[in-house]
């Protein structure tokens, strides 16, 4: 069966989409939608590996992000936004589906695939008449076709425009803003749009020394307690800052294109990141540096500007928010809740008392352990505490000495100067606690009091504080209620295929023949995604 845009659907999917569209017709408009009969546009800007609080609007010392700050100033700044999983593919899958990582099957792993049974917000918007497209990194990395999905998860690709002058090493050559302008020019007359601007910054690799070269100083950086406070560490952080600032410049140009098109105030702009910074004990971890994300949203005069919201929001909330703003119902199975009530409020601070926690999860990033073994973790983060359950404490969180699909040991930590620095024997001898926190094994339970330990380095689990039992029970109740296989003693993730198709990592791809995999074993690693 062929849809109105030439896409082929199976019968079950078509029935589901028809039911959703019928429901939309009978759904009362939200207060925000009633303010205008014109359907809103969406500009979703997703950084690649940027942690909270690394933006000027959060008063992060030394970082310059005027475009992000403008959106926060003219909209709403969120203090407690959390991704579903600290890894690219599962985080992006959760954004599109509104489902938690453990509800995503093969879409919950790096280099996974997207089962077509999960409705995607982008597809539902397209079916309702939206012009949908992307530039840069969309749903990735993985093979979205492998499970039978018939159309790209994020619509039509706009990646043909490159910067006229090649940026410095480490910066993506694609001109995100120019590609956005092409997307706007291709929009059918009168059609609302959804555009995904997915940068590859500040993902590694960086141009070493670029932070200092762009005017930063080593003394601008606050080094958390789990890293060595050395010039090498500080310089690497500044290189990361420089990539965030580059992305912010592209964002400023994209906002200018919206203004030129006369669509700025009718566009719900969402700025966030997929997961935390590519440093030890950050990305691929459930500590705040891995899952606590920046988030600012702007929607012209439809929301009261200049507010700061303290409620806990999760990236599973984006899909139902987009659908609700467009006048569509949430799809069946979406775990997230629309953020429109928070945007519709005129208050700052805590708005909805029920939004008092975030739940995050992780199974597998790269192939960092023998036979595709995972490092399963689940967590609950509340205002003052973080509880983490490690289901396989005997395994190495980083992968240890196993030669990973990145062709490095400690494969679940992105290679870079700070990793080389921390693995140096002299640094390891001088900073043994930092080394252990970043590369050592962990107990089955971790519990941190953020009022006295904001860096989450003093595990209180062995003391069994009463608050830990409350958090443990609440996490387990959530996992059981939402059908997490892990809490039921099952592990479907280890056997899911790792669909990397380039470089040494493709030798772990079981969908390839043994002859093909053998050829990839002789290759160097590909640029990590």
Structure description:
The protein has helices spanning about 10-25, 30-35, 65-75, 90-95, 120-125, 175-185, 210-215, 230-260, 290, 320-325, 340-345, 415-425, 425-430, 430-440, 465-480, 515-520; strands spanning about 40-45, 75-80, 130-135, 155, 195-200, 265-275, 290-300, 305-315, 355-360, 375-380, 385-390, 445-450. The chain has 16 helices and 12 strands. By secondary structure, it is α/β, with parallel strands linked by helices. The strands form 2 sheets. Strands 4-3-5-1-6-7-2-8 form an 8-stranded mixed β-sheet, with helices on both faces. The chain has a 4-stranded antiparallel β-sheet with strand order 9-10-11-12, with helices on one face. The relative contact order is 0.15. About 30% of the residues lie in helices and about 15% in strands. Mean pLDDT is about 95; it is low at about 1-20 and about 20-30. The chain is globular. It starts with 10 loop residues before the first helix and ends in an 8-residue tail after the last helix. Strand 10 (about 375-380) and strand 11 form a beta hairpin.
């Amino acid at each position: 069966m062929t849809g109105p845009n030439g896409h082929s659907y199976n019968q079950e999917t078509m029935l589901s989409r028809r039911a959703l569209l019928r429901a939309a017709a009978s759904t009362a408009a939200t207060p925000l939608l009633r303010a205008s009969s014109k359907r809103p546009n969406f500009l979703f800007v997703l950084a690649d590996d940027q942690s909270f609080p690394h933006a000027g609007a959060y008063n992060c010392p030394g970082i310059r992000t005027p475009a992000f700050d403008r959106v926060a100033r003219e909209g709403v700044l969120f203090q407690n936004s959390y991704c579903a999983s600290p890894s690219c593919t599962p985080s992006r899958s959760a954004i599109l589906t509104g489902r938690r990582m453990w509800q995503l099957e093969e879409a919950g792993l790096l280099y996974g695939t997207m089962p077509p049974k999960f409705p995607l917000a982008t597809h539902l918007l397209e079916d309702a008449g939206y012009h949908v497209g992307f530039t840069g990194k969309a749903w990735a990395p993985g093979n979205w076709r492998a499970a039978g999905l018939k159309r790209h998860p994020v619509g039509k690709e706009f990646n043909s425009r490159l910067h006229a002058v090649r940026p410095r090493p480490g910066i993506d050559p694609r001109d995100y803003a120019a590609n956005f302008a092409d997307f706007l020019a291709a929009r059918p007359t009168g059609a609302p749009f959804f555009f995904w601007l997915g940068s590859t910054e500040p993902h590694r690799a960086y141009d070493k020394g670029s932070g200092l070269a762009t005017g930063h100083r080593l003394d601008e950086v606050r080094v958390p307690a789990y890293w060595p406070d050395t010039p090498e560490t500080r310089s690497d952080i500044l290189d990361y800052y420089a990539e965030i600032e580059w992305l912010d410049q592209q964002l400023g140009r994209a906002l200018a294109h919206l203004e030129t098109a006369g669509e700025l105030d009718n566009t719900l702009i969402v700025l966030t990141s997929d997961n935390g910074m590519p440093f030890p004990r950050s990305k691929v971890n459930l500590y705040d540096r891995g899952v606590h994300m920046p988030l600012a949203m702007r929607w012209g005069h439809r929301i009261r500007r200049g507010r700061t919201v303290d409620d806990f929001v999760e990236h599973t909330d984006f899909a139902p928010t987009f659908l609700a703003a467009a006048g569509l119902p949430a799809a069946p199975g979406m775990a997230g809740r629309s953020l429109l009530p928070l945007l519709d409020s005129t208050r700052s601070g805590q708005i909805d008392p029920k939004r008092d926690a975030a739940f995050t999860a992780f199974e597998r990033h790269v192939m960092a352990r023998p036979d595709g073994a995972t490092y399963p973790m689940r967590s609950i983060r509340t205002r003052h505490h973080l509880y983490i359950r490690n289901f396989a404490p005997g395994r190495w969180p980083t992968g240890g000495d196993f030669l990973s699909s990145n062709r490095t040991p400690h494969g679940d930590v992105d290679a870079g100067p700070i990793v080389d620095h921390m693995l140096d024997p002299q640094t390891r001898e001088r900073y043994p606690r930092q080394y252990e926190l970043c590369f050592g094994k962990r107990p089955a339970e971790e519990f941190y009091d953020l009022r006295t330990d904001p860096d989450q380095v003093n595990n209180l689990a062995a003391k069994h504080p009463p608050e830990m039992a409350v958090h443990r029970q609440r996490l387990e109740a959530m996992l059981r209620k939402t059908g997490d296989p892990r809490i039921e003693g099952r592990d479907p993730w280890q056997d899911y295929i790792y669909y990397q198709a380039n470089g040494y990592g493709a030798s772990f791809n079981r969908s390839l023949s043994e002859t093909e995999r053998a050829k990839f074993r002789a290759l160097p690693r590909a640029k990590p995604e």
